[in-house]
Amino acid sequence: MESLIAIQLLNGVVLGMIYALVAAGLTLIFGMLDIPNFAHGAFYALGAYVAYSVVAHTNSFWAAIVIVPLAVGAIGLAIDALFIRRLARFGHVYQILFTLGLVFIAQETIILIWGADPTSINVPSALDGGLSLGLVTFPYYRLFLVLAAALLIAAVWLALERTKYGAIIRAGIEDPAMVDCIGFNVQRLFTLVFGIGVALAAVAGALSLPVRGGQPAMGEELTAISFVVVVIGGLGSFAGAVVGGLIVGLTQAMMTIFYPSASEVAIFAAMVAILLVRPQGLFGTR
Amino acid sequence: MKARSLGALALLALIVALTPLLVRYPTLEAQMLISGLLALGFSFLLGQMGFLSFGQATFNGIGAYAAALALLHWHVPLVLLLAIGILAGTLSALVVGVLSIQGVGVYAVMLTFALNEMAYFSAFQLKGITGGDNGLRGLIRPDLFGFSLSSSLTYYYLVAVVFVLAVYVVLRIIDSPFGHVLRAIRENEQRAKAIGYEVRHFKIAAFALSGAISGLAGALYALLYQFVPLEAIDFNTSTNIVIMGLLGGVGSPFGPILGAAIYTLLANFLSEVWARWPLVLGVIFCCIVLFLRGGLWELGPLALRRIRHLGGGNVAADSKPL
């Protein structure tokens, strides 16, 4: 029993960091840009499938980790610049509806290109084996996944908080008209932020592929969970995304031992409770 | 009620009455009307009050389960079954409504979604009551006052009568002072509050009506297929209802009915031709959101205006929204 709990704790951390990475992307898009992207999980799925193809062609997992965020992020940039931008003046409702349509398009396109069967890839050979922790062994790949997710989130956070462009973006969110007047193209910067948010979801999909595998509808679950995580953590907060992701991941992992039948209901009940009692989330200030 | 609305309703009733005589697919046609009710319930909230609900399947599913369970365990007569569907739909919508309107903007949408997911996973787990993944089977459609409804054509006409009545009720409510207040809330909630309306009560009442229509649709659905699948309460059903509503247009009650009919036809025939038909649906839906936010129903007046404009008529006089 102890070893089962230890295994599930570790699995919960891995799952939690995948959620945190996807949610960090959503916190940029929804928390900062105020775009309720209901297709966020679809970009996660697309990331996993593009990674599958890159590995199939180049035989290199590392190539996939570089190519996936660039390729899927570029798709995100295009979608924002061409469509979502135009819908901003009609309010949230039409942005939600448009991204809902994107979910259908993404899911069916995935089935058209890659088929409906589940896919997976092998763990890269450099990360075979695992770290012995007494009771259990923690596979190196999962350790790498946790560290990579933490590093990516920290890098995006640092870029926003400590660089000149980060400062311009934050100023643009506070007062777009003013920053426009100073001479920066705010819209272009926002589109870039949208692309980075999408890239984070996509790279999370690629990283999770050797662990969780892929299937065409994998994005739906992640859209729901990343909204739960962002709401729990608080809009626009990266620390909140990590803590929220870990809370949801660990809760799910523990529930599968003790009370598997209620694990989904519990996640959504937590979402309802947070939305009703503390809609600004645990770390949110807005 | 406006003469124009009454005329449109009469025309709708005529089409509904004649369709199965001209093209004999009574089960599919009954499905179109039932989906029409679901889309109508959704569009009432979005079109009149400006509230986007992602949880309409909750009311549909609970209405369907309630009616089916009453039939299975107590052999309740048909008219009462429909009443039970309406009641269950209304009650579930009251709960969802009271909770959801606490949220602002996107949060309110997410509350309807999260509550739908909770209802779905509860139905999935409560196998003893709902049949879980297998659905609730073994329903036998009862007679209506001794008149057998076992043929799908006679059952279609029951659905048709209920449908036309429900549309009439919705049209009356839209034209009532209550409907005007809902549109005032949609246009400017703060001002409606300032005038002195209890905005919260109006919103909850609108939810109740939407739930009543959806619960009724659920009961009709259970009796149509003599079966309640888990999909009845699935979130995907909620998104399909959203698509039907937007496809036809939420501005007029006739829009969602048109949208549901087109959606049902596409789902039945296009899916036979191409298994990936939701791709087509997604593209159409995105185009509607981008370019035709009034839905297909708006195409009629748009074309009419264009023609009048060509004839040198007064465009401005006719440009008010439906």
Question: Can you describe what's shown?
Answer:
The complex is a heterodimer of chains A (286) and B (322). With 286 residues, chain A is mainly alpha-helical. Chain A has a single domain (2-277), classed as ABC transporter involved in vitamin B12 uptake, BtuC. Helix content of chain A is 77%, strand content 2%. Chain A has helices at 2-32, 40-58, 61-87, 92-114, 140-162, 164-174, 176-182, 186-212, 218-233, 238-258, 263-277, and strands spanning 130-132, 137-139. Chain A has a two-stranded antiparallel sheet. In chain A, helix 2 packs parallel to helix 4 (92-114) and helix 9 (218-233) packs across helix 10 (238-258). The N and C termini of chain A lie far apart (42 Å). The mean pLDDT of chain A is 92. Chain B has one domain (3-274): ABC transporter involved in vitamin B12 uptake, BtuC (Orthogonal Bundle), CATH 1.10.3470. Chain B is mostly helical and 322 residues long. Chain B has 14 helices and no strands. Chain B starts with a helix and ends in a 12-residue tail after the last helix.
Lay out the secondary structure:
The complex is a heterodimer of chains A (286) and B (322).
Chain A: H1 2-32, H2 40-58, H3 61-87, H4 92-114, E1 130-132, E2 137-139, H5 140-162, H6 164-174, H7 176-182, H8 186-212, H9 218-233, H10 238-258, H11 263-277
Antiparallel strand pairs in A: 1-2
Chain B: H1 3-22, H2 26-49, H3 56-74, H4 78-100, H5 106-125, H6 127-130, H7 152-175, H8 177-187, H9 189-195, H10 199-225, H11 235-248, H12 254-273, H13 277-291, H14 299-310
